[in-house]
Write a structure and sequence with these properties.
- With 554 residues, the chain is of the alpha+beta class.
- The chain is elongated.
Length: 554
């Protein structure tokens, strides 16, 4: 009959090995069949499996730290049966056992006793770090804690953790360092992925199933205390718990992954080895190492966030360049018509849009839209709007018909929390009439050469909300010297450092004062006034303007 071994390695990975021949040995030495020199808890020749007749036996080879068979110390060779577990330091072997899923660990928080009933020793990071004069105490009265061998562990941790590495690799390295430093055989690192989310997730583990008291978890997280239960079996209530018995836990510790700002998780370690009982010094060391680890994790997270920010900024800059290329580079060359447009997003990319299009029959379409919201989502919806407007401009239709079709199309692509305000003007250079349709946007202003002001009202609701509505259009004569100004609310709602809005009155005053100048010069005058008014205050909304002037004779 053939047999297999399911081996859990010191790094937490798993492998299945067919058991062949008459003998298989394990230890740190390379002369073993299974050699793990990185596991300092193993002896050079630690344990062997030997075939006697038709049976396999496990025998400890006089190892320093001993071998466990089903969580009991192996004193003499013992026969193996399917499912038997052999533990040698951090290597675990199951005879004829199934291979667990790689990288998985089960953590169950048990609703049980409170920590007040447990034989615990506690310590906080503040107990271990020296006080400063700023806290009203003499520094010399609180010298730093000194360890002998543990100092080596801390130095090694500092060297191991100095290099940049992926956060997932960092978690496993930290757990391995902690296990080795305190001589634990099993452990798990639980982290809070989001400081606003109280749910702990497994970041790294060495072992299978962990059952952790909710009282221990809550005390570590809420009180920032490290806990030690030196001898689980000395407490009658714990001794009778089947989860403790099944796991063979003898001694355990838990420490907070703590920075000065917050607790980001827990490191939990335990030992089933009867002759390895954690001490107060072990708890002190684990507490300090957890603090070092937390600072390193925080640094890596900040570095990763900074890198993500740089990547996002680079992507946004590229998106902004694409968006700038989508706006018209120049206006159509139509005798008697002077056009100018301007867009300034308040963020890198924006949701405002303007366009000039000359239709096949020679009429000129001027469009301006404002997508509710800001940033990338608004910019994507703006591109959708622009493409649809340009497609509709290719076909003969009135402005009202164009906007009605545009609304039906946008209603199918606008999210529930988005809509678009939009205004479309069509200028006929043959009879010089201006037809316009407004979908919930700021009404354009028409300024005549003699200074009269008309607000071009009328139209319908915003785009993208009610697909079945129809829009109306209105027509105005476009006389020589008349000027039409289309604008987004970022113009009139711009604020100065005192919180005062630019307003319609200032906007109209600039239009009136510059009504005899070219469209480009009018645009420049408005922008100068906005800059002077707002000063260093950043824009809180996109600013978009279109000026259309009739320059020819009657």
């Amino acid at each position: 009959m053939s047999h297999t071994l399911s081996v859990t390695l010191p790094n937490g990975s798993h492998r299945t090995i067919p058991l062949s021949g008459d003998r298989l040995s394990l230890g740190r030495s390379s002369s073993n069949d299974l050699s793990y020199p990185e596991d300092s808890g193993l002896s050079r020749h630690h344990v062997a499996l030997e075939k006697v007749g038709d049976e396999w036996y496990v025998r400890d080879l006089g190892s320093k730290n001993g071998t466990l068979l089903n969580d009991e110390r192996l004193a003499e060779p013992a026969p193996l049966k399917p499912g038997d577990r052999i533990s040698a330091s951090r290597v675990s072997i199951v005879f004829d056992g199934s291979e667990p899923a790689a990288g998985e660990a089960t953590v169950i928080f048990s609703l049980a006793d409170t920590t007040e009933k447990l034989p615990t020793h506690t310590v906080t990071l503040g107990d271990l770090l020296p006080k400063t004069a700023g806290e009203g105490l003499e520094p010399k009265a609180y010298p730093p804690k000194q360890w002998t061998d543990p100092v080596t562990a801390l130095v090694r941790a500092g060297r191991e953790l100095v290099a940049r590495k992926p956060i997932s690799v960092l978690f496993h390295d930290i757990l391995d360092l902690c296990l080795e430093a305190v001589g634990a055989t099993r452990g798990v690192m639980l982290v809070l992925e989001d400081k606003d989310d109280p749910e702990l997730t497994v970041a790294a583990s060495r072992g299978g199933e962990f059952r952790i008291s909710t009282a221990i978890r809550d005390r570590v997280l809420n009180e920032r205390s490290s806990l030690l239960i030196g001898d689980v079996m000395s407490d009658e209530a714990l001794r009778l718990r089947q989860s403790i018995v099944r796991q063979g836990v003898h001694s355990l510790m838990a420490a907070p992954l703590q920075t000065d700002e917050r607790v980001m998780g827990i490191i939990y370690v335990d030992s089933p080895v009867l002759w390895r009982q954690f001490t107060a010094d072990d708890l002190n060391l684990l507490t300090i190492m957890a603090n070092v680890a937390a600072l390193r994790i925080e640094r890596e997270r900040l570095a990763a966030a900074d890198e993500a920010r740089r990547v996002l900024e680079s992507e946004l800059e590229r998106a902004a360049e694409i968006q700038r290329q989508l706006l018209p580079r120049e206006a159509p060359d139509v005798p008697g018509l002077d056009l100018a447009g301007y867009n300034r997003p308040c963020l890198t990319v924006g949701g405002d849009y303007y366009d000039f299009m000359q239709r096949p029959d020679g009429r000129v379409v001027v469009a301006l839209g404002d997508v509710a919201g800001k940033g990338m989502s608004a910019a994507l919806l703006m591109v959708n709007l622009q493409v649809r407007v340009q497609m509709l401009a290719e076909h003969p239709a009135t402005p009202a018909a164009m906007v009605t079709q545009l609304n039906r199309a946008m209603a199918g692509s606008c999210p529930a929390n988005r809509f678009v305000t939009f205004v479309l003007c069509q200028i006929d250079p043959f009879n010089w009439q201006l037809a316009y349709c407004n979908a919930g946007h700021n009404p354009p202003f028409m300024i005549s050469s003699d200074g009269r002001i008309r607000k071009l009202d009328g139209g319908g609701l915003v785009l993208g909300v009610f697909p079945g509505i129809a829009y109306e259009e209105r027509i105005e004569d476009f006389q020589p010297g008349d000027m039409v100004a289309l604008y987004s609310d970022g113009v009139t709602e711009a604020v100065n450092p005192d919180g005062e809005e630019f307003g319609e009155d200032r906007f109209l005053e600039i239009l009136l004062r510059n009504r005899h100048r070219s469209a480009g010069e009018v645009m420049e005058a408005i922008n100068r006034s906005l800059d002077d008014f707002c000063g260093p205050a950043a824009s809180v909304d996109d600013i978009t303007l279109v000026i259309a002037r009739r320059t020819g004779g009657a």
